[in-house]
Amino acid sequence: MFIDLRAARAMTGLALALSLTPGAGAWSQPAAAAAAAFAPGPDYAGVAGSAAENARITGLCGANRNAKDGYAPTPARPDQTHAPQVKSKAPFKVEVLATLDRSVGIAFLPDGKLLLSQRSGGLRTVDAKGQVSEPLAGTPAIAGVMGTSNTGPVLDRDFARNRIVYYGYTAAPPAKGEPFVGKILKARLSADERSLEDAKTIYEAPWLTPRRLVQAKDGTLLIASGEVASGGPNPQSMTDPRGKILRIAADGSIPKDNPYLKIAGANPALYAVGFRDIQGADLDPATGELWVAENEPMGGDELNRIKSGGNYGFPLISYGRQNSGALINDGKTAQAGLEQPVYYWTPSIAPSGMAFYTGKAFPAWKGDVFVGAMSGQQLVRLELKGGRVVGEEKLLMDRCKRTKDVRQGPDGLVYVLTDESPSEILRLAPAR
């Protein structure tokens, strides 16, 4: 059984929670085993150095460490996976802007500084010269238990006037034996950029696991809540917030046009369901639609375009498998009433962070979408046409770095945050 919103509106006695148990975690082989299992080819060519050097590097890094054991589910469309590999027409150089404690997400302030969140829960600023500030006062502590997380900071669309910042995180359980609580914070960045002021929680829920936070063009907040390390809640449940996208107003209230409001017992904040672990999110600059990048257990990582009330299938359908190698729901990849991904990756790349490119620094990239990759240790550039992926390029493979977030700066350059200890902020600038 699954939740098809269109059918559910006409149903009575709707089952609100199911008991399927998805997998957890991310999977990769040790590099030595992978090097023996993978024969480098043009599909994995890096962007720096000779072809021979690229083959040597990419044979040891990134997605190539995932064993190619022949598992290749049939896509619903030919263009849904393994797009033609393309080579960038935009030569660039990579600069290390800053090195700092392990970080999660970045945003840009009007003065050009970066505001970033760290795995420990702190917020800091980084200026154009790479100077890293002390942690901002007033930042809440996050829970240090399995399954907890925090988002990158999000600036209000009217930040230049109101200096409002939003931030998602998981707080410690209120009492022993109770679940952690996910919270969305709304605060004002001080004029000197050293603290958060007038901070208040505008939304909270037990088991909420904020991964990414986006403000839509209408001012509402879209919260991507993960499922990955939660112990098996069903992303098809209409009460559990994990494995969902939730939608709230900027003051924390529930928008009157949320799609599940008329389903008895459903969480009124639900906007879309059926995800495993969304780690990247951005708005299509042309349409305002939300796109997300999602981690599946072992292969089948997805790029999805989100519809209000859409059901994205996990764990009823998947192009991946459990971490053990077992099939997910007997290997089903399609079912009536469930949305198909725009694109998927098998083997897994563990996507994290994504950004549509609209800048002027790289005209050849305009309209493309960048997706970071953690286990893939790369930055993926996808060429789009008519909402479909028509080309894919693997960038930064020579650096062997897990990519956590990617953003376009106000200068039109591309900024990449690595998921390392320590993290690096990389800046991609045109090579003159």
Give a description of the structure:
The protein is mostly beta strands. It has one domain (5-12, 19-430): TolB, C-terminal domain (Neuraminidase), CATH 2.120.10.30. Helix content is 5%, strand content 33%. It has a four-stranded antiparallel β-sheet with strand order 1-23-22-21, with no helix packed on it. A four-stranded antiparallel β-sheet has the order 5-6-7-8, with no helix packed on it. A four-stranded antiparallel β-sheet has the order 9-10-11-12, with no helix packed on it. A hairpin with a 6-residue loop joins β7 and β8. The model is unreliable at 6-59 and 63-67 (pLDDT under 50).
Query: Largest beta sheet: what is the strand line-up?
Result: 1-23-22-21
Which homologous superfamily in CATH is the superfamily?
TolB, C-terminal domain
Shape call: globular
> What name is given to the CATH topology?
Neuraminidase
How many structural domains? 1
Helix content: under 10%
